[in-house]
Amino acid sequence: MAGKLYAIGTGPGASDLITVRAARLLETLDVLYAPAGKKGGDSLALSIVREYLGEQVVIEERHFPMTADAGEKQAVWDQVAADIEQDVQAGKQVGFVTLGDSMLFSTWVFLLARLQGKVLADGSPLDMEMIPGISSYSCIASAAQFPLAMEQQSMAVMSCTAEPDVLSAALQNHECVVLMKVYGRFNQIRSLLAELGLLKHAVLMANASMATEITYRDLASVDEQAKLPYFSTIVVNRAWNA
Amino acid sequence: MAGKLYAIGTGPGASDLITVRAARLLETLDVLYAPAGKKGGDSLALSIVREYLGEQVVIEERHFPMTADAGEKQAVWDQVAADIEQDVQAGKQVGFVTLGDSMLFSTWVFLLARLQGKVLADGSPLDMEMIPGISSYSCIASAAQFPLAMEQQSMAVMSCTAEPDVLSAALQNHECVVLMKVYGRFNQIRSLLAELGLLKHAVLMANASMATEITYRDLASVDEQAKLPYFSTIVVNRAWNA
Question: B25 to chain A: nearest residue by CA?
Fold first, then answer.
């Protein structure tokens, strides 16, 4: 049997929010690559899929540094891509798990850039397949019963690391705006939403679908000093009240 | 047992792209509401979930007219909302299926607007839960191995029914733009992409994840007279070559 690589989106956190296709596939894998957790614990992506794994699977955790040093990051991606290629070359069914969807704001894309079009030592192309996952904002909309966009409307998915004028333009140009990576930037974002009269049309959710999920429908009431969890996202919908 | 309503996103088309949560739930439903198919056939949403349904389920197909007559549409939504409310009131586990994700460009939101905050005859609130689904563009990105956005980038999800200057602005302001509802507007959209130098950064996919899936990586080669399938979507990523 020829080796193959599968990139699998785990969805936002709950194990039963992965797709049926991913659940079935996970049972058959020989090797699963997962981003390493902090402090020696399971990675979040790994903990989401653990219940579906077959007994034969070998787990390969890899640490992806959150550093600004581009050279250091690239060396890690090069190494993980080489390791995966070697496993596929050896005829293994190899998985790589990422939170949410693997094609949106995901480390997977750096590996895809290295492995797409790759030819193995025997001259055959490296076979790979991606299995989509539920994005956090889709889960947040459902859990908060707060719609994203409908009919002629549009949605923008932004990172809060963007410049304030870029975020402001998006909030004016689209009925729905998803603000990812709120962590550490909540006060500035809240001021911007207040300025644009959007506080009543915004919902903040942290750790969507996990046991620690928290929802704030009244952003004005969130304590300025409160440390929001790392996975905090704001969904704004001008056409709907929070 | 108290009645409850579940809105279930079926994902883009393949039965195994629904979530494990949705699959488990579908087995237990008493009633399933589905948009009616054309010409007496199964609705697409219904055909996606049929294999998961329990034997006890009663299927209620409802025709949602694609008319410009707002009054006619509203009368249908009012009636379906009333029918669902009656079933929940009677203690039933009621499902409503929609293609893709139920919170994005979905008929479900019109029902949500009617049922949110509803109080039943016995004074209890109408209990409801939404189960997210994979959006078509997420499936397209995976199937075409063509990423959406990463790091500081942003993504806009637009309907091609928007004005050309609105689409043009989105294509200039976001690295990734998803163009939904291409059907009948392909030539204008292709001209716009050509004008902005984006033809090489666009992928068109119709019927993603279905047996009839078609992918075009060279939009210039698509026959102008060709009638694209109804479910045709273009994904543009300025930072990636198609």
Answer: A16
DSSP state of A56: T
Mutate: best of A6, A26, A48, A103, partner B, most B CBs <10 A: A103
Given a contact cutoff of 8 angstroms between Cβ atoms, the answer to whether A153 and A175 are in contact is: yes
Nearest to A126 by CA among A170, A188, A84: A84
* β-bridge partners, A156: A177, B156
For residue A199, give the 3-state DSSP assignment.
helix
Distance of CA A39 to the CA centre of its chain: 20
Judged by DSSP in three states, B156 sits in strand
B242 lies in some domain: no
For B18, the closest of A19, A151, A154 (CB atoms) is A19
Partner-chain residue, chosen from A110, A150, A162, that has the shortest CB–CB distance to B105: A150
Please report, to the nearest 10 degrees, the dihedral formed by the alpha carbons of residues A68, A72, A74, A75 taken in order.
Answer: -170
Cα–Cα distance, A147 to A138 (Å, whole number): 9
Residue entry with tokens 């905050």: B117
Q: What is the DSSP letter of A26?
A: H
B107-114: long-range contacts, CB 8 A cutoff, minimum separation 24: B107/B35, B107/B64, B107/B77, B108/B7, B109/A147, B109/A150, B110/A150, B110/B73, B110/B77, B111/B7, B111/B77, B111/B80, B111/B81, B111/B84, B112/A145, B112/A147, B112/B7, B114/B77, B114/B78, B114/B81
Annotate B183-208 with three-state secondary structure: CCCHHHHHHHHHHCCCHHHEEEEECC
Instruction: Quote the CA–CA distance of B11 and A49 in Å, as a whole number.
Output: 20
Q: Output the six-digit token pair for B179.
A: 């163009």
Which one-letter DSSP state was computed for residue B104?
B
Q: Which of A14, A150, A155 sits opposite B109 (nearest CB)?
A: A150
The pLDDT tens digits of the residues spanning B132-156 come to 999 999 999 999 999 999 988 999 9
**What was the ipTM of the complex prediction?**
0.95
The verdict on B76 and B33 lying in the same domain is yes
Are residues A141 and A122 both part of a single domain? no
In whole angstroms, what is the distance from residue B73 CA to residue B237 CA? 36
Confidence check: pLDDT of B65 > 90: no
Looking at the structure, do residues A122 and A144 belong to the same domain, yes or no? no
B51: its two tokens: 């294999």
Q: What are phi and psi of B135, to 5 degrees?
A: -75, 150
Residues A125, A30 share a domain: yes
pLDDT band per the 50, 70, 90 thresholds, residue B39: low
A242 located within any domain:
no
Taking residue A112's Cβ as centre, other Cβ atoms within 10 Å add up to 23
pLDDT confidence of residue B41:
67
User: CATH no. for residue A212?
Assistant: 3.30.950.10
